[in-house]
């Protein structure tokens, strides 16, 4: 009876369809329907569902979801394969409870097509268009809690991956969640290109044209897809996530910036394109494309060829391999790849050996050409490879922690590319070679074939390769530790710094002096020499090297190399002509520092912290941010330095606790000093202090304005409450500053130093508040350490028990 009534209504709708006015609603219940000219609009007007005709040349129309503000951008199409061919069409809930699309003769053109059990439930079906762009079918009239959907459009992506959509497999339906291109801009039916998760051995996502592979992300290695980091934008808007359960296996993006609207589209020529509207703008911009670099196209360098995107001639043969056809290779046709120079001996130990190749996207896994065991150790894996003459390479299948599992390749190795240092130095593999090749390895490392066979180029590349191998070798000697940086000889550094003469000292840190030096090449360097009895032990030393070598950002100081020899621990950095920020802002020299410079410096430091906290592959808490740890280059660009006590946070960890509180008084947050708790928000606190120092030219700890209020923070807070904020501004600036900007900076710094970490903003919102005048800044609450007396800059140690023993090691 109810369904008959529903059909009457549909009929009624059809009759009056053209005259219907668009209704702004976001849901459709059992006895309701929408027709042409009508639409559903999500609650906050983000997405709209309705009918559209992409081509004017035919009368085909489709039911689709588009951005309400960008109606040309269709994110999802229901009936891709079965267009409506006349001007009519109705979307309604059918008597079986499914969402259906009917043509003018009431035939079902498209259906959500799930089986629902009882009639009672069927009539309770409701369809909602959510603000995420997800069209969901639920059986709950009152609310649409996530997970209660009996059907959702997000399970059936078209050519567009919206945030929240996944790529993978749904085990309950046995269906792949994949992207399929449109045929062309006027035809949404499935085109030739498909981006889909392969599950042979280990999961990876592969882009195919028909059955031909065009690009692959590399297999999942426990942390990420082994070759995908290249396709990340420099300032990532999202995190890549992987889920694996009995119900589904998926990759998806999780957004870190909520104001950003973004989509990934597989275009009609098979290019994956990420577009986004960044906060504050209204234009879509292309963020990145995949395949993009010269090494992305599948099997670019043929079997056993290694692709290097950083070099113009991107193909190389692995060590021990030579081009299969030299003549073809020389005319830049590398598709035939490389073959072994010397056959494998296939004898255990003596005959063959393995060469470690670092920083690579692992070879493709082809049917019958690989073997995988998730619980084997690397040693067992090596034995397994030795045990079979066709085995050509092996690697850990999971690189989390110390690495585990075993992946073995038989025969040719396909589609390998090198990743840059920042992309994941932990990912590598062992290639099997005849032992005689390994002995030669040191001198004749890589045969680089080049059409431009200029001797100088060869020499240069050869040198690079040699240096690299040397580093690799040393690296392996030290139990495979993850330090992939040039190792300098002590003698080189000694002569560069005039034998560490006192006149070369440019700074003296808590852990030892920093020297200025000049390498024979003429390059100027800064050498940090850790004093033997300094607090920084071998652990901190390695910590700093490993950390910095993985970080690359224009607001972080770049490490060039290191040296651990004869009890000396030395770090080599790029030299910063303008030295450290404290020398500029707390000194008479600060008269040269205009407001614009200060503001840019403040933003730069904040960006460096955003990178540390969320944009780099690691999540890092610096723990010792202060003016003396910010260096300035020749153009006064700030670079954060000194990672000696920085901590890496993994997984979901947001906070840690330590018994030993090391840091610098005046910059340390209350929760850190009192409880030893630190998090990204403790760096935010330090940043707040630093920002106030930049504005005022005064040191938080050495500050005496009145006897009553001992710290700069307290004073700033007081002035803020009395509406006299600008009184704290550095007199050296005279009146040459923009009042509103300075005022904002002070307000932001007060926000950063609030007592409760929860109240402090994240560094990314600090950046957006600094950069964007239109972003509202909340009212700050009282700072932590309001009326506390602070002594000189000290390094403190909180020993077990709860005693605070403070040792004054005033650094500068
Ligand atoms: C059908 O719609 C009417 C009004 O539009 C509503 O009162 C009624 O509850 C609906 N019936 C069902 C079964 O949803
Ligand atoms: C589209 O439909 C209109 C009327 O409904 C008709 O006049 C026209 O010929 C059709 N065009 C095509 C290409 O079928
Ligand atoms: C509606 O669809 C059915 C089945 O596909 C088809 O036979 C019928 O001709 C269509 N009606 C119109 C008016 O297009
Ligand atoms: C619905 O699903 C069944 C089996 O899952 C399939 O045979 C049928 O063709 C589907 N119908 C539509 C309209 O997609
Ligand atoms: C509908 O959702 C509400 C709130 O989430 C829940 O309390 C209720 O049990 C749900 N009803 C059904 C029929 O699922
Ligand atoms: C996914 O889970 C299944 C079952 O727990 C497991 O066998 C498989 O190895 C997992 N795959 C990955 C890549 O973690
Ligand atoms: C983004 O929005 C969601 C839902 O509104 C919220 O749970 C999440 O915390 C927000 N994330 C950020 C980084 O603001
Ligand atoms: C797809 O993207 C590529 C790269 O931007 C572009 O060259 C090509 O024209 C696009 N294809 C279409 C059909 O838009
Ligand atoms: C995988 O390796 C473990 C540890 O060596 C072994 O116990 C297990 O039998 C292996 N599984 C297979 C399928 O070979
Ligand atoms: C070596 O591995 C290949 C490929 O999996 C296999 O066909 C062959 O039987 C193996 N040989 C031995 C001796 O295990």
From TrEMBL:
Domain Protein kinase: 500-777
Major site of localization recorded for this protein: membrane
Localisation per UniProt entry: Membrane
This protein's UniProt keywords: ATP-binding, Disulfide bond, Glycoprotein, Kinase, Membrane, Nucleotide-binding, Serine/threonine-protein kinase, Signal, Transferase, Transmembrane, Transmembrane helix
One BP term from GO: recognition of pollen
Transmembrane segments annotated in the record for this chain: 445-466
Domain of life: Eukaryota
SUPFAM superfamilies: alpha-D-mannose-specific plant lectins, Protein kinase-like (PK-like)
Signal peptide range: 1-22
GO cellular component labels: membrane
EC code(s) of this entry: 2.7.11.1
SMART domains: B_lectin (SM00108), PAN_AP (SM00473), S_TKc (SM00220)
Residues in Bulb-type lectin domain copies: 25-150
GO MF entries: ATP binding; protein serine/threonine kinase activity
Chain ranges of the Apple domain: 346-434
Top EC class of this enzyme: transferase
Name the record gives this protein: Receptor-like serine/threonine-protein kinase
Annotated source species: Daucus carota subsp. sativus
Top-level taxonomy: Eukaryota, Viridiplantae, Streptophyta, Embryophyta, Tracheophyta
